[in-house]
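To whoever is on call:

I kicked off a structure prediction for a single chain this morning and the downstream step that reads the tokens threw a length-mismatch warning. I double-checked the sequence; it's 763 residues and nothing unusual in it as far as I can see. Pasting both halves so you can look.
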Amino acid sequence: MSIYKFLDSVSGQVILKLEDVTIYKVANIGFVVFNMLDRPVNVMNLRLMPQFDRIFKVLETCVAQRQFGVIVFASGKNESFIAGADIDMLYPTTKAAEIEAMAAQGQAGFNKIGELGIPTIAAINGAALGAGCELALACTYRVCANHKKVQIGLPEVKLGLLPGSGGTSRLPRVVGLQEALKIILPGGDVRAKKALKIGLVDAVFPADEFKNQHAFWRHVMKFAEGKLWKSSRRVYKPNKSWGDWFLNSTYIGNWLVGREAVKGLDKMAKGKYPGPYFALDAALNSVGASQPAADRLEAKHFGKLGNSSQSKALISLFKMMEGAKKFAGKCGGATGISPKKIGIVGAGVMGSQIAVLCAKKGLKVYMRDIKQEVVAKGLALVKATFDRRVAKGRMAREKADARIALVKGGTEVSGFSDCDLVIEAAVELMSLKKKIFLELEKTVRPDCVIATNTSSLSITELASVLDNPERCVGIHFFNPVGKMPLVEVIKGGEKTSGDSIATGYRFALQLGKIPVICNDCPGFVVNRILGIYMGEAVKLAIEGCQLPYVDDALLDFGMPMGPFRLMDEVGLDVAAHVAPVLEEGLGERYASDPRYLELVKANPQWLGKKTAAGFYLYDKGGKGIQGGLNPGFKRKLDRLVKKSPRRLSKSMIADRCVFVMLNEACMVLEEGMIDQPEDLDLAMVMGTGFAPFSAGPLSYADFRGIDQCVARMRELAKKFGKRFEPHQMLVKMANEGTRFFPDRPNPKQVRQIPASECPRSKL
């Protein structure tokens, strides 16, 4: 959808050419085209904002001279409009007033669009997110292409912010308060058809089907011609019913909408993420307010949020995620390949889930198991997954059938002969996995990478049975495969080749995952640190702490679920299998009470969520039953409890569980199991859900203060044992006043916004 060739075809005349923006004239239509040549997408940044002054001076002159009767804002990027504001513009800043001024500057720039006095049109040909969406909202009209790359939304709350250039006031006016909050509060976006349905865009035009067709831009041109010299003022009518009018346009209706929204935020954000609360406050207060008044409150909130520890952490996490998605420099110069055909050994739940993920991305799959009925069950799971997508309207039947057809299965090992990568996903038995590896090496091509999805067994030992161990790599998916974003790519000692690691990394990227490279050790990185965390939770239970109380303490800290709920999710049999592996490889700090392990193994019907009973009880759909502690398990666990149980505060419980993780994380770094602190934090957030508003255990330590962590750990060590003695790495950092992430904004210059300051009480 190149606009430049279209403008050439209609004799577009250049009126002004700046570094990132060009103004064209086609008859009485002005085209303002953004194109940042040094970036793959357009963003609003400090370089672009000064150009706005020159742009609008020229536009105002052209309007005054009646050269322009309508102005179209467009992108010179194919399939991309404006992807948002450059977060590097505000990330280093630690003064709320300066961040507030940035928002006010953006608001002033977009307000000028409405002051031109003629109709303006945003022609959206791709992602219009954040500031890109806000620019479009400032226009009189919005049109977009019927293309899969079109996304229109306001994702700022995902970075701990709120829309800061008029989004919280303009979006409710355009689509109504209810629909606006569905986008603003979760940081969401909508596609073309949905945008048209809710009134966010005025028309959806066909995208180009072949090169130089210019279908989209010709429709934009015709739409613009129909708006020449018309009024720039517009009254939006988002209400489709009396109920909509009541909720969107009356004080009581707004109060009801706000009250329900706060309930939802309290349930999901729990006050840990202030961004949505402040965004809601700005949106509610904008209803009926003038644009300047709405802008002032929005900018004030933006400044406060921008200097919060939550926002700095979430932006850090975003930057880590974006860094992981870039292959360059990740594998020491090795290139590897992007595999096209994948082999999977094991057609159980894990193998089938991996097959589904591969098929979604258009990769061919051969899935093998020793029994045909197991293969048939795995293939049925693949088919059922795509059938559900069709039933929910998320995929066309033809496309689903094509994806299903990519997955073949059987009992013959010969199906792996033309694979680029084979992943072993059998049960966690070293002897079985070695046998599978020997069989694979005789069958696959010499350049085929042989991988294992083991969660705890040694990659180095597995590779030792191969004649060519350099082709062996660990590719560890987390369950459920479709939802968990992390993939650990594990080196098998010194023998795994760079190309094998690179292929594993590329494969994870192909699947849309976040890969992290680590070295071989028991539990690798995530399960190793998670294991010490779960072990501490078990110690608390044996000391007499009630399981729901422990879970609630970690939920209050910011974990997505408590440790006992998590063990039910993982499977108590899996946890019991991994625990001895960690203890054998890492020492007595991983030792579990043998009575507890026997208790876990005692009843094969108490394996967690998958058997509808573990620490808790579950219904057939896998949902926890209210008040549903497993009474049988509780009775047996109570027998292990000490006679004089300790009564601990929730903060004490959280500190105990988190600080053993921090100590273990330091050991992982010290042993060189992972290359850099960023990778460890990313792995823990993406693999366990570790409080994202803290950006990981090491970032959490930086924000809390290394010296404060050391002091608290020494207190815990006196009360509960030497496992809490701070690692020497922490002691050294505390003495020297250093941090894990010295290049990030200084934590002492930002402030955590507590739940009590989230503006919910006014509602």
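Update from on-call: the warning came from a stale cache, not from the record. Cleared it. Sanity check on the structure: The CA atoms of residues 46 and 456 lie 48 Å apart.
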